[in-house]
UniProtKB/TrEMBL annotation:
Annotated Thoeris anti-defense 2-like domain residues: 1-72
Superkingdom field: Bacteria
Protein's name according to its UniProt entry: DUF2829 domain-containing protein
InterPro entries: Tad2-like_dom (IPR021361)
Amino acid sequence: MTFEEVLPRLKAGEKVIRSGWPGAELYVKLVDKTTFEGEDLNPYFLINVRGEGYTMFTPTVCDLLADDWEIVE
């Protein structure tokens, strides 16, 4: 799937991953708008990496143009 195809699924709360990644990456998810210390926090992507936990995720141009995105069940 392309990023354009998975984006609505991310917005619906599903998790995605690229099959071309080496394997430690478990999934990417979208975190909805929240608040932090009384201030708005805009939506952002998180990636879960085995053994490391969560970190912020910003898709690269290669990620945006890739067609190997998959839904994680």
